[in-house]
């Protein structure tokens, strides 16, 4: 199981609405007749429901890369949140929320260049190539190294 701290929310009276605790995600290791075996990937792409529970917020832009939508989808699978799930006028058309095997989380998303934000003048999802990476500042090197291992030519934020 991957441990990810759940986030807390302050209520109007200053009380914490959700206790900070560790939640379990599906395992990155599986039991076989020969012992424990690592799953095919060393990361999980969260479902929308998991993302609502496990993504604590407080993330900011850490860098980005240029690749086709199809290549990002080949590595990470279907987006956590797809174009149809965002409202019109949303700044994003696709977003993947990813958790590494050590619990580090980050997101990959386009920003203000797709049909949701620009309407007919925006790029269709299949033509988007500029991807942003959001995460926590302390995890930037780890996230960027992971993406480089996956074959993405990443750049950091200056």
Strand order of the largest sheet: 5-7-8-9-6-10
* Alpha carbon gap, first and last residue: 35 Å
Number of domains: 1
- Uncertain segments are 1-11, 15-23, 35-39
* Helix-strand topology string: EEEEEHEHEEHEHE
Secondary-structure-derived class: alpha+beta
Number of helices: 4
Radius of gyration: 17 Å
Q: Based on Cα principal axes, name the global outline.
A: globular
**Total number of strands:** 10
Q: Strand-residue fraction?
A: 25-35%
Fraction of residues in helix: 10-25%
Largest sheet entry: 6 strands, antiparallel
Q: Mean pLDDT, as a whole number?
A: 76
List descriptors.
six-stranded antiparallel sheet, globular, 10 strands, 29% strand, disordered N terminus, 18% helix, 158 residues, single chain, alpha+beta, two-stranded antiparallel sheet
Task: Describe the fold and architecture.
- This protein has 158 residues and is an alpha+beta fold.
- The chain has one domain.
- The chain contains four helices and ten strands.
- The protein has helices at residues 48-54, 69-76, 115-118, 140-149, and strands spanning 2-5, 22-25, 29-32, 35-38, 43-45, 60-66, 95-100, 105-109, 130-135, 154-156.
- Strands 5-7-8-9-6-10 form a six-stranded antiparallel sheet, covered by helices on one side.
- The longest helix has 10 residues, at 140-149.
- It starts with a strand and ends with a strand.
């Amino acid at each position: 199981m991957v441990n990810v701290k759940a986030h807390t929310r302050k209520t109007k009276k200053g009380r914490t609405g959700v206790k900070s605790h560790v939640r379990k995600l599906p395992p990155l290791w599986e039991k076989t007749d020969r012992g424990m075996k690592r799953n095919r990937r060393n990361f999980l792409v969260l479902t929308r429901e998991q993302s609502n529970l496990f993504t604590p917020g407080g993330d900011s832009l850490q860098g980005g890369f240029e690749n086709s939508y199809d290549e990002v989808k080949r590595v990470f699978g279907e987006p956590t949140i797809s174009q149809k799930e965002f409202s019109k006028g949303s700044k994003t058309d696709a977003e993947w929320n990813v958790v590494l095997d050590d619990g580090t989380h980050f997101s990959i998303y386009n920003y203000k260049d797709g049909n949701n934000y620009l309407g007919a003048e925006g790029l269709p999802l299949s033509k988007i190539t500029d991807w942003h990476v959001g995460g926590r500042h302390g995890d930037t090197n780890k996230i960027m190294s992971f993406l480089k291992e996956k074959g993405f030519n990443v750049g950091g934020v200056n």
